[in-house]
Amino acid sequence: MRIYPNAKINIGLSVTERRTDGYHNLETVFYPVGLRDVLELNREEGPKRVCYFENTGIAIDCPEDKNLVVRAYKLLASAYDLPAVRINLFKTIPFGAGLGGGSSDAAYTLKALNEYFELRISEKGLENYASRLGSDCAFFIRNRPAFASGKGDVLEDMALELDEYEIVIVKPDCKVSTAEAYAGISPAKAVFNLRELNLLPLTAWRKQVKNDFETTVFAKYPAIRKVKEELYNRGALYASMTGSGAGVFGIFPKGDVVLDTLQGNIIWRTDRSVK
Ligand SMILES: C[C@@](CO)(OP(=O)(O)O)[C@H](O)COP(=O)(O)OP(=O)(O)OC[C@H]1O[C@@H](n2ccc(N)nc2=O)[C@H](O)[C@@H]1O
Ligand SMILES: Nc1ncnc2c1ncn2[C@@H]1O[C@H](COP(=O)(O)OP(=O)(O)O)[C@@H](O)[C@H]1O
C-alpha cells in the first residue's frame, strides 16, 4: 500500500515549564499542510517481525534502526505477531525544519500497519503508541487542527480552517535540532491562550501569537529571521517560524503572491507545485 504522510505547522508555541523527565510542557496549535512524503509498504516473505527499509529522496541523517518508520514497525511488532514488511520512504519533507516529517512518517506507519494487517487498534490506541515514538507524533494520527499541551501529545480538536488563504513554506539553508532549540529556552507562562486562536481574526495574530523558539533560534540563525521579515514585506497577514525551525511559513490572502527573492527556498505553497 502507498501512503502520503504530511507535514504540520505550529501556529504559536509557548514553552511553559521544564518537566522532571527532561522534556518541556508546551502550548501550541498544530495545523496539517499538504507537503508530503511517500511511503510504500508491502508484506514480504521471510521471518516474522523484520522490517526491510529503504530511504530514497532526501537522505535522512540517522541510522536505519533509529528511523521513526522502523521504530514504529518494531513498536507494533513487540505487541503483535507481524509478518515481515518492506518499506520504501521517499522523503521530501526536510528534517530540522519544524515540519514534523519524521513524526508524521511514524504515525502513518502505525496507521498503515493497523489497516494492512487488520490489527483493530483504536484511534486512541494508535495515539498512545505514537506518543511513545515522539512528542508530536500523536497529532498525526487524527491529523486535524488541534490545540496541543503537555509534551505536545495532549490534543484538543480545534475548528480552524485556512482554506481561504494561501500558505507558503520557506526553508532557509540551515537545520535546527529540536533538542538544541529546547536547550536555549527559558520556560514562561503563555501570554496568549492559544485555545482561543480561532476566535481571533487572522489579522490580529501578528500582534498576539508568538513562537517562543524564535528569540534564541533567530539570534543563532539570522537567515531565518530574514525570511520571516521578507514574508511580511511581501504581504503576509501572519508569518512565523514553525516548531523549533528552521522552516518559516507565511499566510497570505489568495491571489498573486510574489516571492521572487525567496523563490529558491520555497518548499511548498497551497495548490501549487514545489518551486
Ligand atoms: C518543537 C516541536 C513543536 O511541535 O516540533 P518540531 O520543531 O520538532 O517539529 C515538538 O515539540 C518536538 O517534538 P518531537 O520532534 O516529536 O520531539 P521528540 O523527538 O519527542 O524530542 C526531541 C527532544 O526535544 C526535547 N523536547 C521535545 C518535546 C518536548 N515537549 N520537550 C522537550 O524538551 C527533548 O530534549 C527531546 O529529547
Ligand atoms: N523518517 C524520518 N524522517 C525524518 N527524520 C527522521 C526520520 N526518522 C528519524 N529521523 C530523525 O529525526 C530528526 C528530526 O526529524 P523531523 O521530525 O522530521 O524534523 P523536525 O524536528 O524538523 O520536525 C532527524 O534529524 C532524523 O535524525
Automatic annotation (TrEMBL):
SUPFAM superfamilies associated with the record: GHMP Kinase, C-terminal domain (SSF55060), Ribosomal protein S5 domain 2-like (SSF54211)
Assigned keywords, A-Z: ATP-binding, Isoprene biosynthesis, Kinase, Nucleotide-binding, Transferase
InterPro entries: GHMP_kinase_C_dom, GHMP_kinase_C_sf, GHMP_kinase_N_dom, IspE, Ribosomal_Su5_D2-typ_SF, Ribsml_uS5_D2-typ_fold_subgr
Enzyme superclass (EC): transferase
Pfam families, per the entry: GHMP_kinases_C (PF08544), GHMP_kinases_N (PF00288)
Domain GHMP kinase N-terminal: 67-141
Catalysis performed (reactions): 4-CDP-2-C-methyl-D-erythritol + ATP = 4-CDP-2-C-methyl-D-erythritol 2-phosphate + ADP + H(+)
Residues reported in the UniProt entry to bind ATP: 94-104
Membrane spanning stretches: none
EC number: 2.7.1.148
Signal peptide: none
Listed GO MF terms: 4-(cytidine 5'-diphospho)-2-C-methyl-D-erythritol kinase activity; ATP binding
Active-site feature positions: 8, 136
Keyword Transferase among record annotations: yes
Domain GHMP kinase C-terminal: 211-256
Pathway: Isoprenoid biosynthesis; isopentenyl diphosphate biosynthesis via DXP pathway; isopentenyl diphosphate from 1-deoxy-D-xylulose 5-phosphate: step 3/6
GO biological process, one term: terpenoid biosynthetic process
Family membership: Belongs to the GHMP kinase family. IspE subfamily.
Alphabetical list of HAMAP family matching this protein: IspE
PANTHER family: 4-DIPHOSPHOCYTIDYL-2-C-METHYL-D-ERYTHRITOL KINASE, CHLOROPLASTIC
Its job: Catalyzes the phosphorylation of the position 2 hydroxy group of 4-diphosphocytidyl-2C-methyl-D-erythritol.
Protein name: 4-diphosphocytidyl-2-C-methyl-D-erythritol kinase
Lineage, top ranks: Bacteria, Pseudomonadati, Bacteroidota, Bacteroidia, Bacteroidales
